[in-house]
């Protein structure tokens, strides 16, 4: 999602405006808290509405692990500190499990913003991607934002930082200098003074400028301006999504060199496993995501935690168990598995299932599975279905080619409820 907001922190009566700081936190999964703070935030006393932070008080906003900060225009933000070096689960550290050169090429980042890396890449405002753009302009921001949206493209000047560790902080906007306050000059209007672009990072404002206009003494001055794109880095190219015991972990072992635990009981996998599919020219990261059950969006079976991982994959491979419900055995038919999975994804986050997808019809080796597969093909339209026996690695080469095409964008079929005939 792309959104743009005003982000200027104005000094208030007698005090300097607080800085706006982004802090990396594994408990946050998207930029929603950022939106919330921006909406709820107040400026220093006398500051225009819609500002973030209060006078003299820094505003710390939590962002997810894997947030990449690009600068489009303005002052280069600076890294503050790593408040806590506590070790994260490897899953929470993008790239830590994956030695993927293609990813590092896409996301060249630096940890020291004093030597920013200049880039000339263009970032498209693609509403399907998880981008957040923060436009911090003192006056004409919303107009700018609309313009930018119309233009559709922005030049990224620098890759500023990639926040991968808990507690890492970056100042993205410096607070403006404080005015002297209404107390000193009660006759002057309380109306805030909005000034042209200017940075107040390096000490007090120009006294001449201040004395030129009494109202700035009262209202304080705007903080620094910068225009940023925040991007949430994907954790995997492909997510294996399915009900418990569908064979996701077995499949990950078959398509990569990963060796995840496999069990004949549900919820064998409780934390996602990552593996790499290696081709001559490209490496694709696959995440084996813990099984989802009906009601996952209401947190049944740790649903929330599992569903969140899906947000950060580009392509979905729905793994269904063809043997489920066969021969009077308990279980859900594959087409119903697909329907339930989509419902859970969409309840968790609207549009979550709207990404390139395919279906893996697993356990084709089981008695009666062929017939179920044929029925599945009749009942599910619009996405390729790959019959696979993950245990014997049958059908795996074809599946790998299909996944590669989706990741490369050569195909982009999506599974939706209207393409599944359940009754
Ligand atoms: N017959 C048959 N059994 C399979 C196949 N793939 C997996 N299984 C079996 O299905 C069971 C579950 O496999 P897992 O890979 O652990 O399933 P999962 O989807 O990762 O399960 P959770 O982690 O609980 O969500 C195991 O007993 C596997 O041996 C297959 O292609 N054919
Ligand atoms: Mg598993």
TrEMBL record:
Domain of life of the source: Eukaryota
Keyword Cell inner membrane among record annotations: no
Span list, region Disordered: 80-150, 196-220
Entry's Gene Ontology BP terms: ribosome biogenesis
Coiled coil: none
Domain Obg positions: 1-235
GO molecular function, one term: GTP binding
Regions of compositional bias (Basic and acidic residues) in chain numbering: 82-92
Keywords, comma-separated and alphabetical: GTP-binding, Nucleotide-binding
Any Pfam family: MMR_HSR1
UniProt biased composition (Polar residues): 102-114, 124-149
Domain OBG-type G positions: 236-408
PANTHER family per record: DEVELOPMENTALLY REGULATED GTP-BINDING PROTEIN-RELATED, MITOCHONDRIAL RIBOSOME-ASSOCIATED GTPASE 2
Family statement: Belongs to the TRAFAC class OBG-HflX-like GTPase superfamily. OBG GTPase family.
Protein name: OBG-type G domain-containing protein
């Amino acid at each position: 999602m792309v959104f743009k907001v005003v982000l200027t922190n104005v000094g208030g009566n007698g005090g300097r405006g607080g800085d706006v700081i982004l802090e990396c936190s594994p408990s946050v999964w998207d930029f929603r808290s950022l939106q919330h703070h921006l909406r709820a935030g107040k400026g220093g006393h006398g500051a225009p509405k819609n500002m973030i932070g209060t006078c003299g008080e820094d505003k710390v906003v939590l962002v997810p692990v894997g947030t990449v900060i690009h600068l489009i225009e303005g002052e280069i933000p600076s890294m503050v500190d790593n408040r806590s070096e506590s070790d994260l689960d490897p899953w929470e550290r993008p790239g830590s499990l994956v030695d993927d050169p293609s990813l590092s090429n896409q996301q060249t980042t630096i940890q020291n913003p004093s030597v920013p890396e200049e880039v000339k890449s263009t970032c498209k405002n693609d509403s399907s991607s998880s981008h957040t753009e923060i436009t911090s302009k003192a006056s004409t921001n919303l107009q700018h934002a609309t313009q930018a949206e119309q233009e559709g493209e922005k030049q990224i000047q620098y890759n500023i930082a990639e926040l991968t560790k808990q507690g890492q902080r970056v100042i993205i906007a410096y607070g403006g200098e404080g005015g002297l306050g209404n107390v000193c000059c009660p006759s002057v209007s309380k109306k805030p003074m909005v000034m042209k672009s200017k940075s107040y990072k390096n000490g007090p404002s120009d006294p001449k400028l201040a004395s030129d206009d009494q109202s700035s003494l009262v209202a304080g001055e705007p903080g620094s301006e910068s225009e940023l794109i925040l991007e949430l880095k994907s954790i995997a190219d492909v997510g294996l999504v399915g009900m418990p015991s569908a064979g996701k972990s077995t499949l990950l072992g078959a398509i990569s060199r990963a060796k995840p635990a496999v069990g004949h009981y549900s919820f064998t996998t409780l934390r996602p496993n990552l593996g790499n599919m290696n081709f001559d020219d490209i490496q694709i990261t696959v995440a084996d995501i813990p099984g989802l059950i009906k009601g996952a969006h209401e947190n049944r079976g740790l649903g929330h935690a599992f569903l969140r991982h899906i947000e950060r994959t580009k392509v979905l491979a729905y793994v269904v168990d063809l043997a489920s419900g066969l021969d009077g055995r308990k279980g859900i038919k594959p087409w119903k598995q697909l329907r339930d999975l989509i419902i859970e994804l969409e309840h968790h986050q609207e549009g979550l299932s709207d990404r390139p997808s395919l279906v893996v019809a697993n356990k084709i080796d089981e008695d009666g599975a062929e017939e179920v597969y044929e029925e599945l093909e009749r009942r599910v339209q619009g996405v390729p279905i790959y019959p696979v026996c993950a245990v014997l690695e049958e059908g795996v080469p074809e599946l790998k080619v299909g996944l590669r095409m989706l990741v490369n964008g050569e195909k982009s079929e999506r599974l939706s409820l209207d393409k599944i005939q359940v009754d």
